[in-house]
Every structure is written in C-alpha cells, then in structure tokens.
Amino acid sequence: MEKYYRLSGSIPIYAAAVLLDPTKREAYARKNWDDDYVYRALEFAHEIWADKYESLPSLDSEKDSSARGGQQTQQRNPRTPTALDEMLAKVNVQSESADADDLSSFTKANAINLHGQSPIEWWCRKEQRLAYPRLHRMAIDILSIPPMSDEPERVFSGARRTISWDRHNLTSKNVEMIESLASWIKEGIVGHLDVGNSLEGLIAGMELRDDDESE
C-alpha cells in the first residue's frame, strides 16, 4: 500500500482530481492524507491551475466578444486618476477579479452530496460554469481522464480471443471493426438487431490477409 500511495503522490493529476471532486475537496485530503502530502497536493493543483487555466478568458469576456461579432469598437481614453481615486483604491477591499482564484475558493468550501450524480456531470451543469468560469474547464479536463487502465487491457485480452488460431488471417482492419461492434453493443450504443441488419455489409467489406503478407 505504501508503494501505491507513493506512486499516486508522484502524479499531480491524481491530487487535482481529488481536490476538484465536490464530494471531497480539501477537507477530504486533510482528513485522510499526511500533512506533507496535502501540502504537495495543493501545490500541484495550483501549478496546473496557474499554468493552464487561471488566465483563460471568462464567460463574460467571451459573450462580449461574440456579441460584437468580431467588430472593433472605439473605446474612450480613461481619465487621469485624481487624488480621490488613488485614496479610494488604497482602502478598497474588493478584488479586481472575483473569480481570479476559483481553485482556492472551491477547494476550501464544504463537500456536498451529489445524490448519485458523478463529479464530471456536476461540473458540466450550467450553474457550475457560471460560478466557476475558468475552474470548470480544468475540472472537466482532469476528471475526464480514465483513472485506471483496466478497460484497454480488457479490450486487448478480448481481441486475443477474437484472433483465435483458426482466424489468424483476419486483418487489423477487420479486428478493429469486430471489437468496435462488441464495445458498442456492450455500452448500448447499438442493439443486436442493428448489428444484424448491417452484418451483410460488414462481411462484404472484410478482407483476408495473404499468407505471405506481414503486418
């Protein structure tokens, strides 16, 4: 288990995925992880945030750009700040950008119950895009990454059963079509009836590899 945690700790994406999960956030990390790893996890996540997402345009700026239709508008030259403006700026407690640090505000908030909804489904909701105009992009990118490699390995093993000793003349194109159909049926994308209706065309398009052909 120690080896597993060391390997997980060396991957910044893993830490960021936990922090961006609405059911976990920073509270989960502080409760279940060592203090040193919590510090590194927060540091990793903020590095990804600052490097790729913090400076992205917000939804408001994108809407303004779309409304203009690409046409440039003339802007008035800002007036020279007065002494009163400078004094008000010094005592102002409002942030210049309310969503400048979406990551910190999100991770420090309380964890919530998604009631059967997946984290990525929660992030894809319109209200999250509005509340976190930049962070939702980071969350969707990271949470879309498959957490394990078992599915590719399962497909590889299934393909080996497809290419049995008496079917070794199947070309890679045919194997790809067969495995794709099997996956689509399993996920419910197509039904057995749909496959049966198109099976004739599939067989007609199959190619047999010559004995002397090497791939």
What does this 3D model show about the protein?
- By secondary structure, the protein is mostly helical.
- It folds into two domains: 2-65 and 100-143, no CATH class; 150-205.
- Helix content is 61%, strand content 0%.
- The chain contains 13 helices and no strands.
- The longest helix has 19 residues, at 35-53.
- It is elongated and about 85 Å long.
**Integer average pLDDT:** 75
Shape: elongated
For the record, the count of structural domains works out to 2
| Low-confidence sequence ranges | 64-76, 93-100
Q: What class do helices, strands and sheet pairing give? A: mainly alpha
Gyration radius, to the nearest Å? 26 Å
Strand content: under 5%
* Sheet with the most strands, sense and barrel status: none
Q: Sketch the topology as an H/E string, one letter per element.
A: HHHHHHHHHHHHH
Number of helices: 13
What gap, in angstroms, lies between the N and C termini?
A: 41 Å
Say what oligomer this is: single chain
Helical content stands at 55-70%
Q: How many β-strands, per DSSP?
A: 0
What's this entry about, in short?
This protein has 215 residues and is mostly helical. It is built from 13 helices and no strands. It folds into two domains: 2-65 and 100-143, no CATH class; 150-205.
Provide the descriptors you would attach to this structure in a database record.
mainly alpha; elongated; about 0% strand; about 60% helix; about 220 residues; 13 helices; 2 domains
